[in-house]
# Entry
Amino acid sequence: MKVTLVSLGCPKNQVDSDIIAHGLLKAGHTTTADMTEADVCVINTCGFITSAKEEAIENIFNAVGARLENPKLKIVVTGCLAERYKDEIMTDIPEVDAVVGIGAHDKLLEVMESVTKGEKLSCYGPKTNLDITKKRIISTPRHYAYLKIAEGCSNGCYYCAIPLIRGPHRSRPMESCIEEAKWLAEEGVREIIVVAQDITRYGEDIYKENKLAELVTEISKIDGIDWIRLMYAYPERLGDDVIDVIATNPKVLHYLDLPIQHINDRVLKSMNRKGGTDIIMSAINRLRAKVPDISIRTSLITGYPGETEEEFQQLYDFVKEIKLERLGCFAYSEEEGTKAATMEQMPMEERQRRADLIMQLQTGIMADKQAAMVGRDIEVIVDDYDSENELFICRSVYDAPEIDGEVYISGDWPVMVGEIYTVHITESDIYDLYGELVED
# Structure
């Protein structure tokens, strides 16, 4: 069959899609981006927050619309939205032919066969059946890839539906992580981006102790891997051993995604976050002391149920004083099934007003930090070439793909996509940098 595979949401979901794609190709199917040519469209959805659900539904209706030109097209929905809403999807969108939960990905090929014969079905299994150790393709540009080291989450934050959707935290065996990292290197990957819902819990379930620092050290020994980037580390479990690896291992980038959500102790407790103000500040201070040029990315929530104007002001002042390098702020979104959704809700307009104020503040901070990069020599990896503007699109060690900024260098240099170079920064704007290749 010809299959269109649509992958939505976060990098962790993208890895699931890569595993699905490998299974399709191994079984002899082919993939196509054109739904008007496909026999089946498999949509791997996100269902984390309202905007993600809206995007998933929009993509389902795009597939429904493609049937006007391709009446034989069958639509299979999987991923977080499928796991979260089960039979509601087929009830509300009867054009969908099958819904497959994350614990039934091993049944996906059988489901595809069934729907092409005219059957309609939903298929589910235990969330723990999701196997992230299976072989996969690489859907990112060849020189970087995500390595998912765990599945699920056991943190139990009251605003978050991930534990309901994905189940409890389950670490992937270290041998499996290292084996995949070696394969990625053999395929030409230069940058490994380590991801999970919470990488700082890695190993605690299967090894009875935290093994993140050890895992990262082992990955760094692999020939061909030059950059290792760490995403989604929780401040209350950020050990000195991990900070030491960032500080001393030349392959581990001076970058860390450290989601903190808020800074007020009462709000954090109401969110069921395990770390309070002191723990968050300790994590930031320890990182900056050991790694002075660290780029810390975080995410914040405004308008959480019960957040007072004074508590929001404390968050605003924190952003103003601490001046984190990368920051995203989101208006709280109530999610069905979570404890926070049962609390008294603030009007969305006020939630968004507060988020906008934080982002306006952060825009100025980012502009200042970007301007401070002018005159420096930094390492970049070349992601792409913009032929229209004759510019190479690069990323610095301080920028993760798709969420952070970029570095542009003129296209008259003899550089190659996927290679790492030193660039002298000559200009900046709010998010991006511009520079010249340092000849070596």
